[in-house]
């Protein structure tokens, strides 16, 4: 006895189609196409209902107490400002003194530029999130931060 009800589980879809083909001796091309179309429509509906796209990512490593947040903010702000000052001094010294225009100092100039780029990509957002109790970052913000980190 044939069932005209399409099975709910995707693994049963091929069994249902095989039963339709085997039990119907007068199965024409039109009914075969209809059965295949039913499977395709069901697979598409199932795929659309099960798919998800993240809109934000949760950041769970920030502490809960306000004092620790302020301590982390001050610590990372100090490290960030020290890195900016140190790399800025290296860039200024190499750019202003013509005696430092050698291969070794050109390499140090590139290293300080890379350090400025990578630290400026991640640390300000992390410190702001910690200070203002933001526990999520948007997908676009995460993708932008990852792209900028990869560029530097």
From TrEMBL:
<feature type="transmembrane region" description="Helical">
    <location>
        <begin position="70"/>
        <end position="96"/>
    </location>
</feature>
<keyword id="KW-0807">Transducer</keyword>
<keyword id="KW-0675">Receptor</keyword>
<dbReference type="InterPro" id="IPR017452">
    <property type="entry name" value="GPCR_Rhodpsn_7TM"/>
</dbReference>
<dbReference type="GO" id="GO:0004984">
    <property type="term" value="F:olfactory receptor activity"/>
</dbReference>
<dbReference type="InterPro" id="IPR000276">
    <property type="entry name" value="GPCR_Rhodpsn"/>
</dbReference>
<dbReference type="GO" id="GO:0004930">
    <property type="term" value="F:G protein-coupled receptor activity"/>
</dbReference>
<keyword id="KW-0297">G-protein coupled receptor</keyword>
<protein>
    <recommendedName>
        <fullName>G-protein coupled receptors family 1 profile domain-containing protein</fullName>
    </recommendedName>
</protein>
<feature type="domain" description="G-protein coupled receptors family 1 profile">
    <location>
        <begin position="86"/>
        <end position="152"/>
    </location>
</feature>
<keyword id="KW-0716">Sensory transduction</keyword>
<dbReference type="Pfam" id="PF13853">
    <property type="entry name" value="7tm_4"/>
</dbReference>
<keyword id="KW-0552">Olfaction</keyword>
<keyword id="KW-1133">Transmembrane helix</keyword>
<keyword id="KW-0812">Transmembrane</keyword>
<keyword id="KW-1003">Cell membrane</keyword>
<dbReference type="InterPro" id="IPR050516">
    <property type="entry name" value="Olfactory_GPCR"/>
</dbReference>
<dbReference type="GO" id="GO:0005886">
    <property type="term" value="C:plasma membrane"/>
</dbReference>
<dbReference type="InterPro" id="IPR000725">
    <property type="entry name" value="Olfact_rcpt"/>
</dbReference>
<keyword id="KW-0472">Membrane</keyword>
């Amino acid at each position: 006895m044939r069932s005209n009800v399409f099975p709910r589980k995707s693994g049963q879809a091929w069994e249902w189609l095989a039963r339709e083909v085997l039990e119907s001796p007068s199965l024409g091309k039109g009914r075969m196409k209809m059965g295949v179309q039913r499977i395709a429509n069901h697979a598409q509906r199932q795929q659309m209902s099960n798919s998800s796209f993240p809109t934000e990512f949760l950041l769970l490593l920030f502490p809960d107490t306000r004092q620790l947040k302020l301590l982390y903010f001050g610590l990372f702000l100090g490290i960030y400002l020290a890195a900016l000052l140190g790399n800025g001094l290296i860039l200024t010294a190499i750019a202003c003194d013509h005696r430092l225009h050698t291969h070794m100092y050109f390499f140090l100039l590139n290293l300080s530029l890379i350090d400025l780029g990578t630290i400026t990509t991640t640390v300000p957002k992390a410190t702001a999130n910690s200070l203002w109790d933001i526990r999520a970052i948007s997908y676009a913000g995460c993708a932008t931060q990852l792209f900028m980190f990869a560029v530097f």
